[in-house]
Automatic annotation (TrEMBL):
Tagged with keyword Manganese: no
Annotated Pfam families: Chlor_dismutase
Lineage of producing organism: Bacteria, Bacillati, Actinomycetota, Acidimicrobiia, Acidimicrobiales
Keyword Disulfide bond: no
Species for this entry: Ilumatobacter coccineus (strain NBRC 103263 / KCTC 29153 / YM16-304)
Keywords tagged on the record: Heme, Iron, Metal-binding
Protein name (database record): Coproheme decarboxylase
InterPro entries xref list: ChdC/CLD, Dimeric_a/b-barrel
Pathway: Porphyrin-containing compound metabolism
EC code: 1.3.98.5
Amino acid sequence: MGRGVGGGWVIVSLEVMLMDDGLTVLHLLARRTPSTDKGAVAAAIEAAEADDCQVITAAMLGHKADICFMALCADWRTLRRFQSALQRAGLDVGDSYVSVTEVSEYAKGMPEEMLRGRLHPVIPPEGLNAFCFYPMSKKREAHANWFATPYDRRQEMMMEHGKSGRTFAGQVAQVISGSTGLDDFEWGVTLFAKSPDVIKKVVYTMRFDEGSALYGEFGAFYVGYLDYVDNIL
């Protein structure tokens, strides 16, 4: 138990900040600086993994970032320690995204094993080393308001969307995480693919689905490939 600086409020527990179910997904986009210590970065990853986090790293293409850390963990305090350790290691964390694993309301009837896989995904999927992350939302406009559309109609569009995605089975895997109330968009989408052109093909193909064509809004795209810290930095 702790007391605030002003003495007027109390924190009941300082030990954990756990999810009730599922995992928090933290994407940290960082640049190397002259003071970056690769050994300290590696130690930060090892410490997070020792605290039951999954951590992967991807080399980024383009000016937005040099490296992306994707960490999955049930405890927010562990993720915050990881973020702080990377900053102390000399990395400039210029962008981030916070979301949580979830089971979609449109996933009714799916096998229990598949539902558990969505709440507790294991990353990275084997053999899929091309990497892409982007956030997205659904529109709330007069002519296209996803949240004012009846459930049955939304489910129909999501079934179409899923059918398009399944045509890329074996070539791409995804982690869809919810971020309503947690970050600037409503979902985070992480794609793992067998090659960079597959990422382009799957995103382009699914843009024609009605649920995306009429209702989709997208944030910045971060692309690269999975690699070890020593090779990236």
